[in-house]
Design brief:
By secondary structure, this protein is an alpha/beta fold. The chain has helices spanning 35-43, 61-67, 84-99, 117-133, 181-189, 204-214, 216-228, 234-241, 250-253, 278-285, 342-350, and strands at residues 2-6, 52-57, 76-79, 104-109, 112-114, 138-143, 153-164, 167-177, 193-203, 263-268, 272-274, 293-295, 298-301, 307-310, 316-319, 324-328, 333-337. Helix 3 (84-99) packs across helix 6, helix 3 crosses helix 7 (216-228) and helix 6 runs antiparallel to helix 7 (216-228).
């Protein structure tokens, strides 16, 4: 089994900690380690470093090698230009199609939290076992919902296909992205719907065949890159061809077009949370909504449901706060109600082209 960890993206909803040059997946938002390091440590007990690949942008070469010193240099795939997840997944598929076309591989993301790590590892091993039996499948790793989220994707399962090592495998039926409140409530109450963390397993040969079927123009260029991987031509080819690939999400490019019979769903509860925004980080790391979450030099008095992250030596004091976020990075102090988190991304976008563009 091989594992690919995607560590691209900027994550503006975690601004001002997450920025273009220092995205969230490299910042210390959970203890003294980045979510990228935690993602690596989560799979290290069952996957050799030589079988772990990391996909990210070329601007992050130094930080990523510093944070993951055990991974071989050839396993870092540095995109010369960000072209969205469709191209990024395609590049990995092309490379692994040359290296290990029939071996199961799992795609994971670097900016998420998993509390039940042993359960998670068992799920990954089970997915690999399934793919060794049926190589022309995509196995979607779904998560039992904790609440009726309107901000996450949902995945619907069909009938049970088989059981193996205590895990049930189901037919894949459909996707639902960011449903309306009433629909999200229905999904949460239904045993056939799960949150969709975006994790899945497949084989490179099968995944690359889907690119040939649904994105033939991109596939042709990706094949050139895959053929060049491992030779002295690869870097030049990457610089030449990758920026010309269509900028499109992997969902729109491939997943929305696949036949449901091509996919399986395995659902479990391994304590997953998307920490792409401050309020979701708080939900992931606290046991109740009332609880406060702090980092650094912080003192709170008569306050509830507050997140304060202080990355400076200055003491931050909060009195009578409720449902607030306070983020102090030294050059930026962000203070806003929790409900205003969606406005953070829009605010950051407005900084482009202004005298404060360096804060993006």
């Amino acid at each position: 089994m091989k594992v690919v960890i995607f560590a691209g993206g900027v994550g503006t909803r975690l601004w001002p900690l997450s920025r273009k040059n220092t995205p969230k997946q490299f910042g210390k938002i959970i203890g003294d380690k980045s979510t990228l390091q935690l993602a690596y440590e989560r799979v290290a007990p069952i996957v050799d470093p030589k079988d772990i690949y990391v996909s990210t942008g070329s601007r992050y070469i130094n930080v990523i090698k510093d944070q993951l010193p055990n991974i071989p240099n050839e396993n870092f795939i540095f995109e010369p230009e960000m072209r969205d997840v469709g191209a990024a997944v395609g590049l990995i598929a092309a490379i692994l199609n040359k290296v290990a076309p029939d071996e199961p591989f799992i795609i994971l993301w670097s900016d998420q939290v998993v509390k039940e790590e042993e359960v998670f590892r068992n799920v990954l091993k089970h997915v690999a076992d399934m793919l060794n039996e049926e190589k022309s499948k995509i196995v979607f790793i779904a998560h039992t919902s904790r609440f009726a989220s309107q901000n996450l994707g949902w995945i619907e399962r069909g009938n049970k296909v088989k059981s193996l090592n205590g895990f049930d495998m189901y037919e894949f039926k459909s996707w639902h992205y960011r449903p309306e409140p009433t629909l999200a409530e229905e999904f949460h109450k239904s045993e056939n719907h799960y949150w969709n963390p975006g994790y899945f397993g497949t084989t490179a040969k099968f995944l690359f065949s889907l690119f040939e079927k649904y994105a033939p123009e991109m596939h042709a260029k990706l094949k050139e890159l895959g053929d060049a991987y491992g030779t002295n031509r690869f870097e030049k080819k990457l610089e030449e061809l990758y920026p010309s690939l269509e900028k499109i999400s992997f969902d729109n490019l491939i997943l929305e077009k696949i036949d449901p019979s091509d996919g399986y769903v395995i659902g479990s509860d391994f304590g997953w949370s998307d920490v792409g925004a401050w309020e979701s980080l708080k939900e992931a790391l606290t046991d109740s909504e009332e609880e406060n979450l702090t980092k650094g030099r912080v003192m709170l008095n008569d306050s509830r449901d507050v997140l304060v992250y202080n990355y400076t030596d200055q003491m931050v004091v909060g009195i009578d706060l409720e449902k607030f976020l306070v983020i102090n990075t030294g050059d930026v102090l962000l203070v806003c109600p929790k409900d205003s988190v969606p406005k953070i991304k829009k605010f950051v976008e407005k900084l482009s082209g202004t005298e404060n563009e360096d804060l993006i």
